[in-house]
Amino acid sequence: MKLDEVRIKDFNFGDVDGSDESLEPKFQDLFYDEDSFYETELSKKKKFIIYGRKGTGKTLLASYINEKMKHNASQSSKIVSYDEYIYEKLKEFKYDSVKKEEQSLFWRYVFLQQFVDLIEKDYDCAYFWQFYRKRKLKKFIESVTRQFLEVQQFVNEESTEIKNNGKINSTLSDLGVELQVNSSTGNTQKTTSIESPYFKKYKEIETEVLNYLKSSRKVYFIFFDDMDRLEETMNLDEFINLMISMIYGAQSLNRKIEGNSKIVLLLRSDILKLLFGKSGDVNKPITSGGIELIWYESNAAASDSPLIKMVLYKMSKSIDDNLPLSEIRRNFFPTKDTIFKYMMSRSFGRPRDIVSFFNIYKKKFPEDQKIVLKNMQRVEKEYSEWFYKEISNELKITGKFDEVDKLLKSISELGKYEFTYHKLFDFMQKRQGNTDELLELLTLLVQLGVLGIRLNTGNIEFRYRDYNIDKPVNIHTKFVVHYGLRKLLSISFNDDNEKNITYE
């Protein structure tokens, strides 16, 4: 196809859902990892956590590595999703009664199950003439499968009669350390603790799996994705403890595995931030074992940022594998960087935001030969509505969604892109709004990047990375509404020309 025949509808900008994008036929060709940086980082033994804000491409990166490993005979990989995990959990355990101190062991057990599941596929794929290998695999699989069944039978057993008519209460609170044995004689009841058969069995299974991984020439990667959705099934404190134990469990098992096989966790930055205040040491494995997905470079020209390069790369691969990014830039965008600055200022510096913006444009103006600012502005309202829905997903986990939603309506009614605490407070008081938590809620919106801060230098600073030092927020702070929300909130742009914006 000649360049002058190309229309915007011919480009594949990707999908806002990484799971859906990974199913596309040319997914691997369209995936962008500049200089294979993230792939190289993940190959390091100690790296086992991929984290970033929602929409930064965690699932996409895992899917890309997963597909590459599938095509390498010396590697094997799988992605365990939230739904699959829930199935395993319900099949094996009554998790609501797991003791806090035993949750790490529970996770290691689940991880071992997934390694065995992956190794089973090696048996299915082995050639019929590989007699020794198939015999070794069959022996290993039969052994650990039998032990897993014994564990399942033990956990499902609610009570067992013993000789003195006592009962063994084997709920999952007995998961890692002990059984409560209640025996009664007349009116006397005695409770004693013994080592749980489950704990003994776990050690046997772990030894077998570790020995197999040590002797195998293969490298096994298992990605755990969407575990943050467990928050929907339990209260916040239980969820936080569960996530902390998952990190410790993965780190503990990975350290025992010889070679490069490992468990890899995909986690949202806002979830990790919740954990920091609950465990003094959880920041250590995150800092040493984490890979943060970053797409924004504050010192780079907008068109040179990794985010825009990603889009240009996808456009190039959509129509011609050999077309330089500079040609895409020259042929399908205005000469100036204005359109890129415009889009970046309405995003959180995430691939999902930019991909959504381009896809909305493509839907509205499929026959355009160039992406132009005038038409981008016409689709901004629809993008702004989508952008708020994305923010809503992050707000829900704060437990303050309803309060924040009401506050944003008050900001919309105020109609100012920039305001102070006192100005908003007075406005809400006149309308009999609830101002009890106003400063706390404004601080939360700054932390999420919904509001920016006007600095004394005149610059506007928005936070979109979760691990920068928080700027102090007080009653004298000048707040600025994020550009991506102004259309939705019907706030004027006229007196703000978008200069002096900086992003942390």
TrEMBL record:
It comes from the Bacteria. This is FunZ protein. It comes from Streptococcus salivarius.
